[in-house]
Amino acid sequence: MSGTTWKEFWSDRPAYQRTGAVVGIVLAIFQIYTAIFGSLDAMMQRSIHLGLGLLLVFLTYRAGGAKSGRLGWLDVLPLLAVFPAIGYILLRYEWITVERFSFVTPLYWYEIVLGIVMVLLVLEAARRVVSPGLLWVTVGFIVYPFVAPFLPGLLRAAPSEWTNVLDYNYVSPGGIFGIPLGVSATEIGLFIIFGAILMRSGGATLLTNISFVIAGRAVGGPAKVAVVGSSLFGTISGSGTANVATIGSVTIPMMKKAGYDSNFAAAVEAVSSTGGQIMPPVMGAAAFVMSAFSGIPYSTIIMYAIFPAVLYYLSLFFIVDLEARRLKLPLMTSDISFVQTIRDYGHMVIPIVALVYLLLGGFTPRLAGGYAILTALAAAQLRKTTRMSLPTMFSAFEDGAKGMLIVVVSCATAGIIVGAVDMTGVGNRLGSAFVYAAGGNLILGLLLAMAVALLLGMGLPTTPAYIVQVATVIPALITLGVTPAAAHMFAFYYSCLAIITPPDASAAFTAASIAEADGWKTGWLATRLAIVAFIVPFMFVYDQSLLLIGSLPNIIVSVITACIGVFSLSISIEGYFRRNLALWERAAAFVAALLLIAPNVKTSIIGLVILGLILVLTWKGRGREERTPA
């Protein structure tokens, strides 16, 4: 029997932590129950989900920014305010959802008060859980409908009554309780709980040990363990920053000990962990939101995302290998036994296989997530090494609920942002302006879309950043001729990459803090290491074979040439292959990479010729260096 004892889970904890544990367990059980036996009516499901989430926020995150310590008045007051704000919706549910008419039926004075309280609670939760940046961006969107009549040009909009803003965000199935929160309430939370159960039951050990077995004894083993391990963690996590905190605490010290520079070690882990948002089957929260907004089934999104994710990690794997060879790092020794790992933890792959089978078999993400959780709980009991006691199981539920908080809060604030865009109609005008600025030129439109996504990522988490583009950039890209699937994937990719792109590179700064490195340098280095992810979206817009769409022969050719192209890109980024490359050789390798990654036979042939020439020159150059006497 492994894991947490009753004393650790309950007796040794102060009252507010025990209360938080109960709320977290109730939230997790609520998510699992409604996934398997059917969700409640939309607004009721979302209200309970948000209410429990807000209670857990104010029990977990202190007003001063800490995640522990005694509750103060600034914690107790919002905690108590959650009950009337959410309770009114549940008690007057029929009146709110059936009898009254949004924007027509006037709000009662107490609905106005509770609406203000609700908005303030979400804003304060955003400040505590996510960042002050998200708070101020959301405040800006709340204020916008009131100042829009006085703004010039495209930003001008008709006047809005302040009570309409409260109506939309409190007693309507839009705004705070809109589609983003709906996805969080029915789908995303389940996958976070699933990951928490695997981590508590031994799934983390399985993935880490497999990473060591696969890459630990290779040249540059610690960095390759980070790449392989983070890619495996990414299949069940979907959170870049969480991956950094989980596996980075192990791999970053190992990389530094092996001889990698601390900034490089931190950058490798940040890039590896960020890939968790684009790595199927459990991608980032924005992927689930994408399914809701685009109408593309999540199982189809998984298929689209597979090969770009492979290219992402393949590029990073090549880079850390080249860096290890350039530094002439020694091989790492490891006493981890693959056979023993499989014997003790191998059965924990069953839930992951079950999840993939259910998702690809046509089950909804909600039902697949619910069944996967039950499978994980059952599989954990098969062996003593993974068997979960009741307090360990409760701890996993609590971990999952706390892991959901950033998604719950981000989705609630995203609803406020979308509500402001919808109410003012600014999204359509900005989309038209976007098309006009691009002048009908697709490549210019894509560059503008990338800039917008990265700019939004400075102040918003991935999910809200993507959602704003749903209302503005994505329709414009579709107008320019991009298919809906490629347009949504394009916006999704750059929204994810914002967490490693300075100045607001949360994953890079988290990794830098573990490595005791410079966060700014780590962020820029991570951006350079992840350059393939900045290139691939442009390529799949022009030819969707990289999304595995199209004829089989075309897909096969594109897959092969793109993999070779990623190798060429890696030697260009690293500036090394058997010897240090001259500047012109790096530039030529970069051009060859672009030609190879582009899904076109003619350009691929040219790219192969250029790359072949570089390899011949480096091979001969290396041979001359080896024959030259010291």
SSE ordering: HHHHHHHHHHHHHHHHHHHHHHHHHHHHHH
Class from helix and strand fractions: mainly alpha
What's the β-strand tally?
0
Global shape? globular
Contiguous runs where pLDDT drops below 50 for at least 5 residues: 624-630
Helix content: over 70%
Question: Over the alpha carbons, how many angstroms does the gyration radius reach?
Answer: 25 Å
Q: Helix tally?
A: 30
- What about the largest sheet? none
For the termini, the CA-CA separation is: 61 Å
Percent range for β-strand residues: under 5%
How would you state the average pLDDT, rounded?
86
Structural commentary:
The chain has 630 residues and is mainly α. Among the domains are: 6-184, no CATH class; 561-630, no CATH class. It contains 30 helices and no strands. It has helices at residues 6-11, 15-37, 42-60, 73-91, 93-99, 109-129, 132-147, 162-170, 179-201, 203-215, 221-234, 240-258, 262-274, 285-294, 298-327, 338-345, 349-360, 365-380, 390-424, 426-438, 442-459, 462-471, 473-479, 484-497, 506-515, 519-529, 531-542, 552-574, 583-597, 601-627. The protein starts with 5 loop residues before the first helix and ends with a helix.
Write a concise keyword list for the protein shown above.
630 residues, mainly alpha, disordered C terminus
